[in-house]
Amino acid sequence: MNEKKPRLFCFGLGYSARVLAARLMEKGWTVAGTCRDAASLSQLEGSAIEAFLFDGAHPLADAGKALEGASHVLCSIPPGPGGDPALRHHQRDIQRIEGLEWTGYLSTTGVYGDTAGRVVDETAPLNPTSERGRQRVAAEKQWLALAKEGLAAPGAAAHIFRLSGIYGPGSSMLDRVRDGTAKRIDKPDCLFSRIHVADIANVVMASMARPNPGAVYNLADDAPATASEVTALACELLGAAPPPLVPFDEAAKEMSPMALSFWKDNRRVDNARIKKELGVKLKYPDYRSGLKAILAS
Which of 67, 138, 200, 245 is most exposed, with minimal Cβ within 10 Å? Predict the structure, then answer.
Protein backbone atom coordinates (compact mmCIF):
# COMPACT_ATOMS: atom_id res chain seq x y z
CA MET A 1 0.00 0.00 0.00
CA ASN A 2 1.38 3.39 -0.96
CA GLU A 3 1.82 5.85 1.87
CA LYS A 4 0.63 9.38 1.36
CA LYS A 5 3.47 11.81 0.74
CA PRO A 6 3.99 14.48 3.40
CA ARG A 7 2.97 17.91 2.13
CA LEU A 8 4.17 21.28 3.40
CA PHE A 9 2.05 24.38 2.93
CA CYS A 10 4.00 27.54 3.61
CA PHE A 11 2.43 30.95 4.08
CA GLY A 12 5.23 33.05 2.60
CA LEU A 13 7.67 31.42 0.18
CA GLY A 14 10.56 33.70 1.05
CA TYR A 15 14.28 33.03 1.27
CA SER A 16 14.27 30.67 4.26
CA ALA A 17 11.09 28.87 3.21
CA ARG A 18 12.40 28.14 -0.29
CA VAL A 19 15.59 26.60 1.08
CA LEU A 20 13.49 24.41 3.37
CA ALA A 21 11.17 23.52 0.48
CA ALA A 22 14.07 22.41 -1.70
CA ARG A 23 15.41 20.16 1.06
CA LEU A 24 12.01 18.57 1.67
CA MET A 25 11.32 18.00 -2.01
CA GLU A 26 14.64 16.14 -2.27
CA LYS A 27 13.16 13.76 0.32
CA GLY A 28 9.98 13.20 -1.68
CA TRP A 29 7.71 15.82 -0.08
CA THR A 30 5.29 17.94 -2.05
CA VAL A 31 5.32 21.66 -1.29
CA ALA A 32 2.78 24.43 -1.80
CA GLY A 33 2.69 27.97 -0.51
CA THR A 34 1.97 31.62 -1.08
CA CYS A 35 3.60 34.56 -2.81
CA ARG A 36 2.64 38.14 -2.04
CA ASP A 37 2.48 39.46 -5.62
CA ALA A 38 2.38 38.39 -9.23
CA ALA A 39 6.10 39.04 -9.75
CA SER A 40 7.03 36.66 -6.93
CA LEU A 41 4.52 34.15 -8.22
CA SER A 42 6.07 34.21 -11.69
CA GLN A 43 9.48 33.32 -10.24
CA LEU A 44 8.10 29.92 -9.26
CA GLU A 45 6.57 29.13 -12.64
CA GLY A 46 7.92 25.82 -13.87
CA SER A 47 9.07 24.76 -10.40
CA ALA A 48 7.71 21.82 -8.44
CA ILE A 49 6.20 24.18 -5.86
CA GLU A 50 2.46 24.85 -6.20
CA ALA A 51 2.17 28.58 -5.55
CA PHE A 52 -0.86 30.71 -4.70
CA LEU A 53 -1.30 34.48 -4.49
CA PHE A 54 -1.76 35.85 -0.97
CA ASP A 55 -0.90 39.49 -0.24
CA GLY A 56 -1.95 39.44 3.41
CA ALA A 57 -4.69 42.01 2.81
CA HIS A 58 -7.05 39.62 1.06
CA PRO A 59 -7.74 35.91 1.65
CA LEU A 60 -6.63 33.14 -0.66
CA ALA A 61 -8.96 32.74 -3.62
CA ASP A 62 -9.63 29.09 -2.75
CA ALA A 63 -8.18 28.27 0.67
CA GLY A 64 -9.73 24.80 0.73
CA LYS A 65 -7.95 23.79 -2.46
CA ALA A 66 -4.67 25.41 -1.44
CA LEU A 67 -4.52 23.76 1.98
CA GLU A 68 -5.94 20.41 0.94
CA GLY A 69 -3.73 17.50 1.95
CA ALA A 70 -1.29 19.59 3.99
CA SER A 71 0.39 17.50 6.67
CA HIS A 72 2.59 20.41 7.78
CA VAL A 73 1.91 24.17 7.78
CA LEU A 74 4.61 26.81 8.23
CA CYS A 75 4.16 30.59 8.37
CA SER A 76 7.02 32.93 7.52
CA ILE A 77 4.99 36.07 6.74
CA PRO A 78 5.88 39.19 8.75
CA PRO A 79 2.99 40.30 10.95
CA GLY A 80 1.20 43.62 10.71
CA PRO A 81 -0.75 45.84 13.11
CA GLY A 82 -3.61 43.36 13.03
CA GLY A 83 -1.41 40.41 13.92
CA ASP A 84 -0.54 37.50 11.68
CA PRO A 85 -2.16 37.81 8.22
CA ALA A 86 -2.38 34.05 7.69
CA LEU A 87 -4.38 33.56 10.87
CA ARG A 88 -6.44 36.70 10.35
CA HIS A 89 -7.79 35.30 7.09
CA HIS A 90 -7.35 31.54 7.42
CA GLN A 91 -7.33 30.45 11.04
CA ARG A 92 -10.51 28.40 10.59
CA ASP A 93 -9.21 26.88 7.36
CA ILE A 94 -6.03 25.73 9.12
CA GLN A 95 -8.02 24.36 12.04
CA ARG A 96 -10.14 22.28 9.67
CA ILE A 97 -7.21 20.51 7.97
CA GLU A 98 -7.65 16.77 8.43
CA GLY A 99 -4.43 14.88 9.01
CA LEU A 100 -2.44 17.97 10.01
CA GLU A 101 0.62 16.75 11.91
CA TRP A 102 2.67 19.87 12.59
CA THR A 103 2.55 23.67 12.45
CA GLY A 104 5.37 26.18 12.76
CA TYR A 105 5.92 29.93 12.88
CA LEU A 106 9.15 31.72 11.96
CA SER A 107 9.63 34.57 14.43
CA THR A 108 12.70 36.56 15.49
CA THR A 109 15.02 36.91 18.47
CA GLY A 110 14.03 40.59 18.31
CA VAL A 111 11.17 39.67 20.66
CA TYR A 112 13.71 39.70 23.52
CA GLY A 113 14.66 43.32 22.94
CA ASP A 114 17.83 44.81 24.40
CA THR A 115 19.56 42.87 27.20
CA ALA A 116 22.78 44.94 27.25
CA GLY A 117 24.71 41.95 25.94
CA ARG A 118 23.32 39.38 28.35
CA VAL A 119 22.51 35.88 27.11
CA VAL A 120 18.86 35.01 26.46
CA ASP A 121 17.31 31.55 26.25
CA GLU A 122 13.72 30.63 25.41
CA THR A 123 12.56 31.34 28.97
CA ALA A 124 13.73 34.98 28.91
CA PRO A 125 11.10 37.74 29.20
CA LEU A 126 9.82 39.18 25.95
CA ASN A 127 10.59 42.89 25.88
CA PRO A 128 10.74 44.09 22.26
CA THR A 129 12.01 47.61 21.67
CA SER A 130 10.36 48.17 18.27
CA GLU A 131 6.83 48.04 16.92
CA ARG A 132 7.90 45.22 14.59
CA GLY A 133 9.06 43.24 17.61
CA ARG A 134 5.79 43.84 19.43
CA GLN A 135 3.88 42.61 16.40
CA ARG A 136 6.00 39.46 16.41
CA VAL A 137 5.14 38.80 20.06
CA ALA A 138 1.45 39.18 19.24
CA ALA A 139 1.74 36.81 16.28
CA GLU A 140 3.56 34.21 18.37
CA LYS A 141 0.74 34.28 20.91
CA GLN A 142 -1.82 33.84 18.13
CA TRP A 143 -0.07 30.74 16.79
CA LEU A 144 0.42 29.24 20.24
CA ALA A 145 -3.29 29.78 20.97
CA LEU A 146 -4.34 28.02 17.77
CA ALA A 147 -4.71 24.58 19.35
CA LYS A 148 -6.63 25.91 22.33
CA GLU A 149 -9.21 27.32 19.95
CA GLY A 150 -9.62 23.97 18.21
CA LEU A 151 -7.59 21.98 15.70
CA ALA A 152 -8.77 18.92 13.80
CA ALA A 153 -5.52 17.38 15.10
CA PRO A 154 -4.78 18.89 18.56
CA GLY A 155 -1.26 17.43 18.44
CA ALA A 156 -0.42 19.86 15.64
CA ALA A 157 -0.12 22.85 17.99
CA ALA A 158 2.44 25.38 16.77
CA HIS A 159 6.20 25.38 17.20
CA ILE A 160 7.86 28.81 17.37
CA PHE A 161 11.29 29.42 15.81
CA ARG A 162 13.01 32.64 16.88
CA LEU A 163 15.58 33.44 14.19
CA SER A 164 18.72 35.50 14.59
CA GLY A 165 20.16 37.45 11.66
CA ILE A 166 19.70 35.28 8.56
CA TYR A 167 22.43 34.89 5.95
CA GLY A 168 23.29 32.45 3.19
CA PRO A 169 24.09 32.18 -0.53
CA GLY A 170 22.97 35.32 -2.32
CA SER A 171 22.24 37.11 0.95
CA SER A 172 25.40 37.66 2.96
CA MET A 173 28.07 40.22 3.68
CA LEU A 174 30.00 38.83 0.70
CA ASP A 175 27.25 40.15 -1.58
CA ARG A 176 27.36 43.58 0.07
CA VAL A 177 31.12 43.79 -0.31
CA ARG A 178 30.80 42.84 -3.98
CA ASP A 179 28.12 45.43 -4.72
CA GLY A 180 29.85 48.17 -2.74
CA THR A 181 27.18 48.61 -0.05
CA ALA A 182 29.17 47.09 2.83
CA LYS A 183 29.96 49.34 5.77
CA ARG A 184 32.10 48.92 8.87
CA ILE A 185 30.36 50.52 11.81
CA ASP A 186 32.32 50.80 15.02
CA LYS A 187 30.23 49.69 18.00
CA PRO A 188 32.51 47.16 19.69
CA ASP A 189 30.19 46.38 22.60
CA CYS A 190 27.27 45.41 20.32
CA LEU A 191 27.23 41.71 19.43
CA PHE A 192 24.85 40.14 16.92
CA SER A 193 23.87 36.49 16.64
CA ARG A 194 23.41 34.95 13.21
CA ILE A 195 22.05 31.79 11.62
CA HIS A 196 22.85 30.31 8.20
CA VAL A 197 19.76 29.59 6.12
CA ALA A 198 20.80 25.95 5.75
CA ASP A 199 20.74 25.57 9.52
CA ILE A 200 17.26 27.10 9.67
CA ALA A 201 16.12 24.28 7.39
CA ASN A 202 17.99 21.74 9.54
CA VAL A 203 16.26 22.89 12.74
CA VAL A 204 12.77 23.05 11.23
CA MET A 205 13.17 19.58 9.71
CA ALA A 206 14.42 18.24 13.06
CA SER A 207 11.30 19.66 14.71
CA MET A 208 9.10 18.02 12.08
CA ALA A 209 10.78 14.70 12.88
CA ARG A 210 10.44 15.24 16.66
CA PRO A 211 7.29 17.31 17.21
CA ASN A 212 6.91 19.00 20.58
CA PRO A 213 3.69 21.04 20.24
CA GLY A 214 3.99 24.48 21.81
CA ALA A 215 7.79 24.43 21.91
CA VAL A 216 9.86 27.57 21.31
CA TYR A 217 13.35 27.40 19.82
CA ASN A 218 16.13 29.96 19.45
CA LEU A 219 18.00 29.67 16.15
CA ALA A 220 21.48 31.14 16.38
CA ASP A 221 25.03 29.98 15.76
CA ASP A 222 27.70 29.60 18.43
CA ALA A 223 29.62 32.81 17.80
CA PRO A 224 27.89 36.18 18.26
CA ALA A 225 30.11 38.88 16.81
CA THR A 226 30.21 42.55 15.92
CA ALA A 227 29.05 43.59 12.47
CA SER A 228 32.46 45.08 11.72
CA GLU A 229 34.16 41.70 12.31
CA VAL A 230 31.91 40.04 9.76
CA THR A 231 32.53 42.81 7.23
CA ALA A 232 36.27 42.57 7.74
CA LEU A 233 36.27 38.81 7.12
CA ALA A 234 34.14 39.14 3.99
CA CYS A 235 36.61 41.70 2.62
CA GLU A 236 39.54 39.45 3.48
CA LEU A 237 37.98 36.45 1.75
CA LEU A 238 37.31 38.48 -1.39
CA GLY A 239 40.68 40.24 -1.35
CA ALA A 240 38.92 43.60 -1.13
CA ALA A 241 40.00 46.65 0.81
CA PRO A 242 37.78 47.01 3.88
CA PRO A 243 35.60 50.14 4.03
CA PRO A 244 36.63 52.76 6.59
CA LEU A 245 35.58 52.21 10.19
CA VAL A 246 32.78 54.68 10.99
CA PRO A 247 31.82 55.53 14.60
CA PHE A 248 28.28 54.41 15.37
CA ASP A 249 27.06 57.88 16.39
CA GLU A 250 28.13 59.22 13.01
CA ALA A 251 26.65 56.31 11.04
CA ALA A 252 23.35 56.54 12.96
CA LYS A 253 22.65 59.97 11.47
CA GLU A 254 22.03 58.35 8.07
CA MET A 255 20.20 55.22 9.27
CA SER A 256 16.56 54.46 8.65
CA PRO A 257 14.31 53.88 11.68
CA MET A 258 14.40 50.15 10.89
CA ALA A 259 18.19 50.07 10.84
CA LEU A 260 18.37 52.04 14.08
CA SER A 261 16.05 49.57 15.78
CA PHE A 262 18.37 46.77 14.64
CA TRP A 263 21.37 48.47 16.25
CA LYS A 264 19.48 49.42 19.39
CA ASP A 265 19.35 45.84 20.67
CA ASN A 266 22.41 44.09 22.07
CA ARG A 267 22.04 40.49 23.19
CA ARG A 268 23.59 37.06 22.88
CA VAL A 269 21.33 34.14 22.05
CA ASP A 270 21.51 30.75 23.76
CA ASN A 271 21.02 27.93 21.23
CA ALA A 272 21.33 24.96 23.61
CA ARG A 273 17.73 23.80 23.22
CA ILE A 274 17.93 22.96 19.51
CA LYS A 275 20.97 20.80 20.28
CA LYS A 276 19.65 19.05 23.38
CA GLU A 277 16.01 18.57 22.39
CA LEU A 278 16.24 18.22 18.62
CA GLY A 279 19.74 16.75 18.33
CA VAL A 280 20.80 19.47 15.88
CA LYS A 281 24.46 19.83 15.02
CA LEU A 282 24.94 23.15 13.28
CA LYS A 283 26.45 22.85 9.83
CA TYR A 284 27.80 26.39 10.18
CA PRO A 285 28.49 27.04 13.88
CA ASP A 286 30.00 30.48 13.24
CA TYR A 287 30.05 33.20 10.60
CA ARG A 288 33.59 32.25 9.56
CA SER A 289 32.64 28.76 8.42
CA GLY A 290 29.43 30.07 6.91
CA LEU A 291 31.03 32.78 4.80
CA LYS A 292 33.84 30.50 3.65
CA ALA A 293 31.31 27.89 2.52
CA ILE A 294 29.29 30.48 0.62
CA LEU A 295 32.40 31.69 -1.18
CA ALA A 296 33.47 28.14 -2.02
CA SER A 297 30.08 27.36 -3.49
Answer: 245
